[in-house]
Amino acid sequence: MCQTVKIQQLKAIFTLIRCFSLGKTLIVKNMFETYTSAQATMTDSTPPVGDPSFWADLPPVHKPPTVIVPIRSLGENHRSRIADHLKALDANDRYFRFGFAANDEQIDRYVDGLNFDRDEIFGVYNRHLKLIAMAHLAYAGDERRSECAEFGVSVLPHARGRGFGQRLFERAMMHARNHGVHLMFLHVLSENTAMLKIARHAGATVVRDGFESEAHLVLPPATLNTQMTEMLEEQLAQANYQVKIQAKQFRDMLQSMQIGWRAATSKPRDNDPPP
Ligand SMILES: CC(C)(COP(=O)(O)OP(=O)(O)OC[C@H]1O[C@@H](n2cnc3c(N)ncnc32)[C@H](O)[C@@H]1OP(=O)(O)O)[C@@H](O)C(=O)NCCC(=O)NCCS
Predict the structure, then answer these.
(1) 96 within ligand 1 shell (Cβ under 6 A)
(2) Average pLDDT per consecutive 10 residues, the chain (275 residues; last block may be shorter)
(3) Radius of gyration of the chain from Cα atoms?
(4) pTM of this structure
(5) For residue 71, which of 194, 191, 159, 197 has the smallest C-alpha distance?
(6) In testing the pocket of ligand 1, which one of 151, 186, 197 has its CB within 8 Å of the most ligand atoms?
(7) How far is the CA of 135 from the centre of ligand 1 (A)?
């Protein structure tokens, strides 16, 4: 009798656990379905948060992104890696990036002056946790011009031509829209074909003035889609970064074990010099 009661109690507990896990699955499934249907229906043609007439004449979209790039927002603790990234650029790239061939001290000053609270800095890390691409979206310091932001980007030479520059620009555009920026601009040297292509693909107006060009892009207001997409992309990029950290730690541990193993198993040969 007592045993039957216990079995029934156990059955009840199992049923409860199954209901609970099924409930969780349904909640997650529901969240995912809500998100994907929102993605499908809320394209940029959904009424914006602000005035719809503001973006009646949207520039044509170049093409949908084909590359998924884990772009994450960088904070204070990435300062030294940002400096390393910029110092890895050669004189020509530094000239393109800053408008002059900045030396290492000038790069250090630029990096020290980065304001992570006001501006937004985005980065792409490779699996060795090297910052291979970064972008700086600088807001105008002046309160009255807080609706403008300037964009600057750099990709390490070996990582170019893979769409990182383009994706960073798109991410910065989305972030700027979500933060009420109406005008994004960038200073580009007229010979910088790649950067001008990126700007033109996004629909920017490029005004050439001799060696220099200025590109500006009027941004439509944020939509629920841009806000959700940015949030999701940031979460995925942060998760991707954590996985890379753990994978690197694991590789480093394996490597040190291999070194230790080789040292322990290698027998000194007769003709080896004495230690
Ligand atoms: C400009 C820069 C960021 C481009 O980065 P990237 O990751 O190579 O760019 P993408 O792969 O996204 O390519 C974007 C477009 O430029 C084109 N492109 C890339 N390199 C090019 C080159 N050397 N010449 C001509 N076009 C080029 C690509 O084909 C692509 O066009 P498409 O979409 O029509 O095919 C990179 O070259 C760089 O860091 N340069 C030095 C710093 C700099 O110039 N910064 C910009 C100042 S704001």
Answers:
(1) yes
(2) 53 48 42 43 41 41 63 96 98 96 97 95 96 95 75 97 96 95 94 96 93 94 95 94 94 91 76 61
(3) 26
(4) 0.77
(5) 159
(6) 197
(7) 13
